[in-house]
Amino acid sequence: MLKWLVIVAIGIVIYRYLSRDSDANKPKSEGNGVTMVQCASCGLHLPQGEAIPDEGRWYCSEAHRSTGVKTLQAR
Ligand SMILES: [Zn+2]
Q: Of 39, 46, 57, 70, which sits most exposed with the smallest number of CB within 10 A?
């Protein structure tokens, strides 16, 4: 009887350790999964989720999207 209690207790400890470990890994993988894009107007790097897509290019703000790539081409 005691033998089974010990086995169950060890199983719970291992289960908690593994589930806590996998939870700790989740934010890490999400952090690595963020794709950085470059603003076609000013060259600023920002996460793809915050960038504004337009005709296959990325922009950091609505103002730069309306300006387009003219700024970089003029230089
Ligand atoms: Zn910009």
A: 70
